Amino acid sequence: MKAWTKHELDKIAAADELQIVSERNDGTLRKPVTIWVVRNGDHLYVRSAYGSTSKWFRGTQERHRGHIQAGGVDKDVTFAEEADSDINDEIDAAYRKKYHHYPAQYVKPMVSSEVRTTTIKLVPR
Q1: Which domains can be identified in the chain, with CATH numbers?
Q2: 69-91 pLDDT, tens per residue?
Q3: What is the DSSP letter of 61?
């Protein structure tokens, strides 16, 4: 399994927003969607603010492959489930810390129990 470089992690983590694109079953790419991204250690995570019914989230669940762009980094990725569900508390804290300057109405949904179930680890390919 490939790992993020320190430079990639730093650049992506410093970016407020990330463009995410998932692959369709035929290998073509969907339209990019702008979302928030957080870093926890040497890993990057995203969540769907609108839960598992969000179109971009459902797209990540088809092939588990796509592309991201943030902070000047362009990377093909695999969308992976985090095996350690206990890490969600750390990811919640990362969202609160990184996006504290946004109104609570935007941050609060990102740490709700429903949205926690949409946590995706971005793994470089």
Answers
A1: 6-124 (2.30.110.10)
A2: 999 999 999 999 887 888 999 99
A3: H
